[in-house]
Each structure stands twice: as C-alpha cells, then as structure tokens.
Design goal:
118 residues, alpha+beta, two-stranded antiparallel sheet, 5 helices, 12% strand
C-alpha cells in the first residue's frame, strides 16, 4: 500500500475541511493540540488506528487517547459522571485527560478495556 500524504498550509482557509475529509476516508492526520502535535484518525477505523500505532512505534497494549469535537460526541464512547462533566466543562479545551469508563461501543474502540482516556 502506497502512503498518501497531503501538506496543508496554516493559512489555508479550507485546511480543517481537507483534514476532516482525509480522516473520514481512513487517513491519518498530524494536528496541533494544546500541548503537542497528535495523530488524528477515525476512532472506528481499525486500519487507521493500526497506522497510528505503526507510525508511533507504539505497543498495541498501550491504548490511544480518544478526542472528540464536544462532550455529546464522547457519550457514545464513555460514561461521563457528574464530576467528570464538571471538570470537562471547566478545563476543556485544555490540558486535561480524563480516564472514564467505556460504554459498550467504547469497549470496541478501546480493544475491550473498561476505561479509556479522553
């Protein structure tokens, strides 16, 4: 399989649409976060997740963090307690990762783990 890459300028007004389309099509993107550059992929695309593990040289037993556009989007993956919701609303977006119990769908995404970092 030949790797396909796309370089997008920071001043490109359509950058987010291009990245979203690449991820939607099973690609992996490198994106800036509040603290580091991270890999982004469709959490439900096993091939894309495997690509991230390969790019990072990461052991498959060490889970990836799940990120979402908003709290509502995370509810499909994790059970958000009142305490966690308050923390998220206070500190997100920002440098806070919460380890939360997975839903049934979240267990599929997390490789069967009972929790996942979000």
């Amino acid at each position: 399989m030949k790797a396909k890459s796309l370089k997008i300028s920071a001043i490109d007004k359509t950058a987010s649409k291009k990245v979203a389309q690449m991820v939607k099509n099973g690609g992996v993107a490198v994106v800036p976060t509040e603290t580091v550059y991270g890999f982004a992929a469709d959490v439900f695309n096993l091939s894309a997740k495997k690509r991230i593990f390969s790019l990072k040289g990461r052991n498959y037993k060490k889970p990836l963090i799940a990120m979402a556009y908003d709290l509502e989007s995370l509810k499909i993956l994790v059970n958000i307690s009142k305490e966690a919701l308050k923390l998220a609303q206070t500190f997100w977006p920002g440098r806070l990762t919460l380890i939360l119990n997975t839903t049934n769908i979240g267990k599929i995404v997390s490789g069967g783990r009972a929790d996942i970092g979000v």
